[in-house]
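## tool: complex_structure
## caller: assistant
## args:
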Amino acid sequence: MKTSVREGKGGVQILDLKGKITIGSGDVQLRETINKLVDEGKKNILINMQDVTTIDSSGIGELVGCYTSVTNKGGKLKLLHLPPKINDVLTVTQLITVFDVYESESEAVASFAA
Amino acid sequence: MAQHLCAKLIAGYDLPDETKHWILMALREALANAIKHGNAQDLGKRVHLEMEVRDDTLHIRVRDEGTGFDPSAVADPLAPENRLKTSGRGIFYMKTFMDDVAFRQMDGGGMEIVLSKKLLGPKQKEEKGR
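## result:
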């Protein structure tokens, strides 16, 4: 999996993911990237999932772990551009109700200020 | 490799791409479960995989060489107290995306998971029989 971080309005960290978030391929990388941002005091994080091709239960577990980790530090973690199959995977486990999900990057970034 | 073989095995069936996607996801979950939880990531232990199509039903058998586990003891990932846990969803996904998931504790050790999925609906069976 490839990751890149850019900064949006209000210091929101936008994490663009590309590829797989599966066991042994991207799951640990996701956690390390989020932990690094949180350690740097960057606690408002928007994960852009548009180019994520595959996710499995390990990847979902890491997403949940990142959500908990950021929230416990007083931050917010939200999701952007969920591909339909990943939306399905989150829906069947009712995790879709846990995450704030956006289709528009500008709306998502603005929501952190609310 | 396993996904490629499975995809080839079901290629002759006119399944929606989505169904094929979920079958391959269930296969990945079964293999990951065997490596991570069954064999506890012990590189000296193997995972055995058999796949066949019989009576227009796909059967995937995944067997590990671990000490086994009680599948009924796996916590319900939909329970509010488990929803934010970082693990425990693999078996749930297998059950969600396949028609049947059976567990068998092997005599010589290890756990076998058998995933089954019907590849033809009643209408397609009727057409095939003509």
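## assistant note: Chain A has four helices and five strands. The mean pLDDT of chain A is 94. Handing back to user.
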